[in-house]
Amino acid sequence: MTEATDLAERAGDRDPRIGLRAVAALRRLLEQLEAVQVRSARNQGWSWQEIAAELGVSRQAVHKKYGRQ
Amino acid sequence: MFERFTKDARAVVRSAAVHAERAGAQRVEETHVLLALLDGEGGRGSRALTSLGLPPGRREGLVRDLGEVRRRGGLSRADADALSGLGIDVCEIVSRVEEAHGEGALATEGKGSSGARVFGGRLFDRGARELLADTLRIALARRERHIGDEHLLLALSARRGAPSEILADHGVTYTALARVLYGEDGEDGEDGRGDDGGDEGDGGVTAKAG
């Protein structure tokens, strides 16, 4: 019950600053998560092509971003 | 501009590079500069921290908070709060990722924006370079001839991001720093040269004005 009220309160929170900040933070978190997963896949012998396919981006894009590590 | 840095400011820049190296980071970041500032003991920046209740022996809280930010992949507490507003529990994510990939897996080192060499071959990331530019700007706006560790600290506190949030959590804001450094409330007051004994500060200064 209290949880539902909390959620309702948050949904009603229309301050753009908070929403934008959440988006920026999410983007940052996403970048870190991607780096962790790519590193892990490389350690397990995945090719750049395979990683790119799972991420839905081009092989060049992944390689350019993580290739030199 | 490096020739106008005081001995203490140079020490901070050098020590930031050491912190970066020790953390395995490819580039010097703003957090490394903050760690270096916290190491300082004699500079005006360090004395300002002491005036604000953070003498050299009592800065572990800040170091710990910085460690937490690093562990969360660079997200500050305010970032984590904003995400919890979306129903995303950053702590939970961190602990699951660490379970699968080892402790500190999300920590930020390794990647980052493109680096540029500053000051004798050290790579500074974009944020750290902007910090140096802000530092210069602040010193110039105050009509100071030297660039000291206090200007680095002022610049850091005036920027966005985890370091300034952590500083603010511990009572170190731009306004508070300006008060203890220059005895002023706001941002004006350009009496330039510090009044409390410029013993260091004059050390490595050349009178060149750009």
Automatic annotation (TrEMBL), chain A:
Q: Name one Pfam family in it.
A: HTH_23
Native source species: Streptomyces yokosukanensis
Name the UniProt record assigns to this protein: Helix-turn-helix type 11 domain-containing protein
Query: Record's InterPro entries?
Result: RNA_pol_sigma_r3/r4-like (IPR013324)
Q: Which domain of life is it from?
A: Bacteria
From TrEMBL, chain B:
A Pfam family assignment = Clp_N
The membrane-spanning stretches of this chain are none
Pinpoint the Clp R domain residues: 2-187
| Annotated spans, Disordered | 185-210
Q: Which domain of life is it from?
A: Bacteria
Q: What is this protein called?
A: Peptidase
Sorted keywords for this record are: Repeat
